[in-house]
Amino acid sequence: MNPVKHLLAIVAFSCPIASGAGEPAAESFIEARGPAGPLKGTMLSPVVKHGPVVLIIPGSGPTDRDGNSPLGLRAATYRRLAEGLVARGVTTVRIDKRGMFGSAAATADANAVSIPDYVTDVHAWTTVIRQRTGASCIWVLGHSEGGLVALAAAKGQQDVCGIVLVCAAGRPMGELLRDQLRANPANAPLLAQALPAIDALEAGKHVDTTDMAPALTRLFRPQVQGFLMSAFSYDPAKLLSGYGKPVLIVQGQRDIQVHESDARILKQADPQATLALLPDVNHVLKSVTSDDMKANVATYADASLPLAPGVVDVIGGFLTANAKSDGAGSGS
């Protein structure tokens, strides 16, 4: 079997649509090779394909290519980001992770994955997208946990132009999870079980959840412990240090999951990176103008809300400026 031919993107449909600025754009389905079946995604590109090309890597859990989840996340962050970027001449590919949604056939068990598995998938996607667009290289944009995948996947890859990290942790995931649990006073009764569980997983040891509080069993359920051990073993700042290609770090200052300190840790790891701190922007890139936790969380379930002002401008401006400066990442 010809491996290159097998990797070629398959267009399921292509139709013209209007971007947010009224410019014509084309949306199509695209596939890459997965371990047991195809990985699937959606490409949104300007009719005149001459700008940067970006792969959007989703965040944690069952988050689909649009940025939605059956667990109540309905912000459509990635779809809205793609629509905003195409109006600025940027082509995007947003994807379903292996074993989930459109990529369900890629593996029988979506929980039986590791960070290296996701890295393999990113490499499959960059190969296919380059073939499809004619771009010399592809930008990788990782949101939240997707930032860790982007960092691991970009290292040493000639076909990756650079990295955009959006609300991405600067610390190892176990450390971040400890802080998230401690930040909510309601979690105080759970810490005696949760913190030792994180310690064990960091050490590569499975955790017995038989007597664990129900509120923690989903977080540490046996099916995902292998993935957690994999994810906990990576330090984002170490991955970024010495990277050498353009990097944009975008952090909302109303983010209740990842904090400004994480963005500054990443910036310290790569002093040449561009740091964009966006006031009144939360983790799903929506506008939040107060410290009201309920108002912040409510935006996670409202697809009708646009992205916060500045989000698309910062990301689109960085990509376009860097593509023009070195000719990298532009489609034919």
Condensed summary:
This protein has 332 residues and is an alpha/beta fold. 36% of the residues lie in helices and 17% in strands.
Q: What number of structural domains do the residues give?
A: 2
The count of helical stretches stands at: 12
Poorly predicted runs of 5 or more residues: 1-16
Looking across the biggest beta sheet, what order are the strands in? 1-2-3-5-4-6-7-8-9
Quick one: biggest sheet?
9 strands, mixed
CATH secondary-structure class of the largest domain: Alpha Beta
The Rg value, from CA coordinates, equals 19 Å
Which structural class should the secondary elements be placed in? alpha/beta
CATH superfamily membership of the largest domain, which one? Alpha/Beta hydrolase fold, catalytic domain
Number of strands: 9
The ordered H/E elements are HEEEEHEHEHEHHHHHEHEHH
Separation of the first and last Cα atoms: 28 Å
CATH topology of the largest domain: Rossmann fold
β-strand percent reads: 15-25%
CA-based shape:
globular
Mean pLDDT: 92
CATH architecture annotation of the largest domain: 3-Layer(aba) Sandwich
Task: Report on the architecture of this protein.
The chain has 332 residues and is of the alpha/beta class. The protein folds into two domains: 3-171 and 235-326, Rossmann fold (3-Layer(aba) Sandwich), CATH 3.40.50; 174-230, no CATH class. The chain has helices at 3-7, 77-86, 115-133, 145-154, 173-183, 191-202, 214-217, 222-232, 236-240, 260-269, 293-298, 311-326; strands spanning 14-18, 24-33, 38-46, 53-57, 91-95, 138-143, 160-166, 247-252, 274-278. Helix 10 (260-269) links the parallel strand 8 (247-252) and strand 9 (274-278). Helix 3 (115-133) crosses helix 4 (145-154) and helix 5 packs antiparallel against helix 6 (191-202).
